Amino acid sequence: MYYQKVDVTAQKRDEIIAKYDEANSHLEKSNEEIRKKEENLTSLQEEYNNALKENKPESEISRLETEIQNARKDYDEYYKEAQEKFEELKKIYFDAIPDYTDDWTETTIKENNIVLDFSSYEGNVNFYLWVKIDNGTNTYYDFAGFSTEIINHSSGQNDPEKEPEKEPEKEPDKNPDDSSDSTEEWTNFSNANFKLVKDGISKAIIEVSGVSAPSSNANSYYIYIRNNSNEPSITNNIADDRISLTYDTKTKTYKTTDTEKVAEKVELNQDLYVSVLERKGLNESIRTYGKKVERFAEAKYSDAFHATFMTYKEDQIITNFTHAQQNNRKMQIKIGKITNQSILQKIKNQDNSGFSDLLNYAKSNSGMYDETLDADKDDNFAIEYNAGDSGKVGNKVIELKNLEDNQYYYLYVKTIDESGKYVSNEAVTLAQSDVFSDGNWYMFFYGSSDFKWADFGSGNVTPVDDTTANKSIPNTGSDILVFGITMLFVVGGGIFLYKKYNNYNY
User: Fold this and answer.
1) What is the pLDDT of residue 106?
2) CB-based contact 275:286 (threshold 8 Å)
3) pLDDT tens string 359-405
4) Same-domain pairing of 386 and 465
5) What is the pTM of this model?
6) What region, left, alpha or beta, does residue 168 occupy, with left being phi > 0 and alpha being psi -120 to 50 degrees?
7) Is 439's pLDDT higher than 70?
């Protein structure tokens, strides 16, 4: 391991901080505006869906379609401009940080401690510390910014009649921060409990309980997630493998901050073992390692779908499966008519076995549509498939020929494991079809509170009493149909900046 210290002036420090604040201020303002535009899109889409259900005049439906298109265009343009501005500000910020030179110092101490000489310094000192790791195959770089006060004590003027007393020799401070090796200052993780928890639509976090609050706010904590129980090597696992941990004073637990990176590991088909690293000043220590965490059960029925509908001109199938943006997935989509009345009767009567029976039925039924498709690429929000007016150029709208009016259909989705690389999840839900004389058709899945049920005692599946089932479908997802959801770039950007630069002590 190699390191070097790059000094900066107080003026340069203030300049870097100002550029960092400017970038984050832009993120906050853009985030707020984008959320407003998303809420407007969602509201318009809900109004449009209700208009279709209520058979409103074509002029009303056309008006809403135009408003949605205009709102979507406004959203996309603002999103693009805000993202470009953020990238510009981020580059300006990075460019302001002093770069390393060829003047590296190699560590010789077994623990890879870094020794900094401040004997010639006095007063406020600002510097960046660069670290280089070369494992023989790859070279890694990392850095952190520091600001500290250096006080070098010297003897007073000599008394000509008296030899001044010589103070006992003392080694200068090698580290401006609290870097004591005293074991009692490290956090005790011997009784830690680790739990993997679903976070939001498709992300995950790790919660660590049974550990006392940090003794010093200057200490930093990180988790490694691996597929084995071996102790991770600090030297070979620089910042890219680390996931920051922060302490929540309300719940008295440590929680991972980078939900994307946790989701990336969880989505892979592997055992999950965690280790904790603690950084104190410039010293680092693995506090515990090789702790296996159990996976949470993914949703399998209607609650596995965040928002799903299919029409003759657009598709939107959004799952709640754990997902990271860099893991591009394939999904099997299967649709078929439900002719087994006993399954429908169970679901109507809130029999818990109804959906499990429907899942088995969908898997064994040939259906009217059964294809394996590419889910939306580089999608940070979810494993989803959008086509047609939902905004994904290139995705083909799913055609359902011979769809029958007012009949019940299942939607079965399975994520492909790609030869064992990923975890495969499957889920099923159902819908009632609306087919019109002009050939247009609509299916809104996992029925909301106005879902109409048939009287199945008549010997066929044709609705007779149109009974409204009041929240009768268990484990349903959101009642609002979401239009073209895009994960906000500002969320990812903010996490990146926090994770990368949370060690700055300015």
Assistant:
1) 85
2) yes
3) 999 999 999 999 999 999 988 888 999 998 766 667 899 999 889 98
4) yes
5) 0.61
6) beta
7) yes
Task: Return the structure tokens found at 237.
Answer: 């696992």
Q: Residue 342: inside a domain, yes or no?
A: yes
Q: Look at residue 163 and tell me if it is in a domain.
A: no
- Which residue in 241, 261, 223, 264 sits closest to 421, CA to CA? 264
State the residue for tokens 């019940």: 408
Q: Residue holding tokens 């940090």? A: 214
Q: What is the residue range of 369's domain? A: 302-475
With tokens 């049974």, the residue in question is 210
Give me the amino acid identity at 454: A
Give kind and range of the element (H or E) at residue 33: helix 10-53
Percentage of residues in the chain with pLDDT exceeding 90?
Answer: 29
For residue 88, what are its two tokens? 């510009």
Sign of the Cα pseudo-torsion (409, 413, 414, 418, in order) = positive
Question: Among 215-229, 293-307, 459-473, whose mean pLDDT is lowest?
Answer: 459-473
For residues 24-51, average pLDDT: 81
* 494 belongs to a structural domain: no
Could you tell me the two tokens for 120? 């010639």
Helix H or strand E encompassing 373: strand 369-374
How many domains does the chain fold into? Answer: 3
Q: Helix 489-501 crosses helix 58-96 at what angle (to 10 degrees)?
A: 20
Strand, helix or coil for residue 447: coil
**Do residues 241 and 288 both lie within one domain?**
yes
463-484 pLDDT per residue, tens:
444 454 443 444 333 333 333 2
Is 310 contained in some domain? yes
Helices assigned H by DSSP within 436-475: none
The string of pLDDT tens digits covering residues 283-296 is: 788 999 999 999 99
24, 135: one domain: yes
Q: Which of 477, 331, 476 is nearest to 412 (CA)?
A: 331
**79 and 206 part of one domain:** no
Neighbours of 128 (CB within 10 A): 21
Does residue 233 sit in the same domain as residue 85? no
Question: Domain end: 258, 281, 296, which one?
Answer: 296
